[in-house]
Specification:
CATH superfamily of the largest domain: Response regulator
Structural class: alpha/beta
CATH topology of the largest domain: Rossmann fold
CATH architecture of the largest domain: 3-Layer(aba) Sandwich
Helix content: 25-40%
Number of helices: 8
Largest sheet: 5 strands, parallel
Shape: elongated
Number of domains: 2
Distance between the termini: 25 Å
Number of strands: 14
Radius of gyration: 19 Å
């Protein structure tokens, strides 16, 4: 399921959006302030962020800066051209002005997520590691690495979320063994250790104590 960060301080608007988004099957984290949103970003990965432009402790731009690879939809009463241009210049994927129709916003959310999925690359490079997604092969410089299916899947999770802290729960929810059994927390530790040994110094898989892992 896709995860969405909703930052909106208006209680009524937030309640309506939460209900509508969850009815569509999205997992939504709601924050009312920049401080709350920052805490959520540190401990969670989000597929999309819907940010109110004007908040009690600042503006949505400061949150967007912390979401380096997460697509952003700004939600605001500000509809002047300068603000809209600034939003897109800073990487916003969409800009919705209040008042808005829920169904229209849901359509924009779906379109943004679909565009992100459709833009998936056929290869990834991390340090000296190159992942050939089409062939399902991983190279260290020009050396082909022998990774198990789970090790490959784990590496792909890190590759597609570079620079982001991934909680152990987020990783576990995306890894299943070949028999369809859920991988346990202790098993994840073992696989990360094995992956580190095979990658050597080529990739730094950083342990974020008490939270999870991050690959820069």
């Amino acid at each position: 399921m896709k995860t969405i960060l909703l930052v909106e301080d208006d209680v009524m608007i937030a309640a309506g959006l939460l209900y509508a988004l969850e009815q569509e099957g999205y997992v939504v984290t709601h924050a009312k302030t920049i401080a709350h949103a920052t805490t959520a970003i540190v401990t969670n990965y989000f597929d999309l962020a819907i940010l109110d432009m004007q908040l009690p402790d600042g503006n949505g731009f400061s949150i967007a800066e912390k979401l380096s690879t997460t697509p952003v939809i700004f939600l605001t009463v500000v509809d002047d051209e300068a603000s809209i241009v600034k939003a897109f210049d800073q990487g916003a994927h969409d800009y919705v002005t209040k008042p808005f129709r829920i169904r229209e916003l849901l359509a924009r959310v779906k379109r943004t997520l679909s565009a992100e999925a459709g833009g998936a690359t056929s290869s990834y490079n991390i340090g000296e590691i190159r992942i050939d997604v089409a062939a399902g092969k991983v190279y260290k410089s020009e050396e082909l690495l022998d990774l198990t299916a789970l090790e490959y899947k784990l590496l792909m999770i890190f590759a597609t979320h570079r620079g982001q802290i991934l909680t152990r729960t987020q990783i576990l929810e995306n890894i299943w063994d070949s028999a369809g059994s859920f991988v346990e927390d202790n098993t994840l530790t073992v696989y990360v250790k094995r992956l580190r040994e095979k990658l050597g110094q080529s990739v730094n898989i950083e342990t974020v104590r008490g939270v999870g892992y991050r690959v820069d």
